[in-house]
Write a structure and sequence with these properties.
The protein is mainly β. It is about 10% helix and about 40% strand. About 5% of the residues have low confidence.
Amino acid sequence: MDSSPLNRLPEETIHQIFFQLTLRQIAACKCVCKALSSALSSPSFRHLLSTQPTFLSLLALKPSDRHISPFPNLHAFDPALNQWLRFSLSFLPSSSLHPITSSDGLLYLWAALPPLRNSNTALVKNSSQKSLVVCNPLTRQFKILPQLGSAWSRHGSVLAGSGTVFVLTELAILYYSQGNDFKNGDVNSGGVSSNWLKFTSNLPSKPRSPVMVSDFILALCDVGSPWRSQWAIFKTKITDMKKTKQWVRVEKRQWGDIFGILKRPRLVKARNENKVYMVGGLKSSFALQSSCTTILILRLDLESLEWEEVGRMPEEMYRCFMESSKFKVFGGGNKVCFSAKRVGRLVLWEESEDGKAKWRWIDGLSGNGDGVCRGFVFEARLDVVP
């Protein structure tokens, strides 16, 4: 590249040339040489990209807890090109990384940071903690959020959006804003940094598959007995979290037994900000150990509280799931993905802009423990920084 005519062009001209390319092409060009990588990573080029923001909608996989690689990578599937991608995470200051969610082009991970050392270079007792790390794998920039106790990483569900991060458990909610360090936070105990705000929660059980929709958080909770599960949707408004009883049950008398017909329901964020998907196995009867006939995707309008069926897994696909006692659901926007033990591949439901939906297999799945994959939608972007 030293003798390339490209080097004689002004940087602004280079930016205008590469601005005409797709995000996939720009990402590929960044790998050509250090000069292009620097030019296409500059703040001025990121600002130019932000004038017409584009992203790649990918399905990212969470690594198995038992099989975390010493060479950390983010494995993601590109539905548009039907191929698997691998983003190196070696630029992060930890080899023990667990990607968990994403928002606005940024990736969030649990990381075990190296233990602290005192002035005599001796290890500080109990200083090795779990922290949330936010990064952009395309630009290799990152930020470490204030440390949390290990219990939060084991039992908490993480949600992120618009510069805010939430860690939810049955008893409490942690809140962090990247634009505000909360120097006067009201809690600094139990391993929780004063940079996090802590609110008491009043959920009846551990929140399952929480999602952030507009300015609300929704979650499924089991309100049944030890012998029989009974699921219900609860929601809280983010701005009302300081209230003592911030969670309210979402229900409508006309729903009838809609939660009784679904086995192992999960919530998935929809493309429309006023809607949410609920996914589960369609039971053949109301019997306690009733078998399922297929997997159903329902969509709830949060304004009218009306349900509609938008997807039903084809019979030939569901046969592969019938023998598995455990299946996982993840996705967001217009995509819902399914995995199960011993299936060895994923099923993808995808809805197009005109409302038409299709089902297909995703092959090429690498070894992942028991074969049950967990994941999330990652909208990769080049114009955002942590």
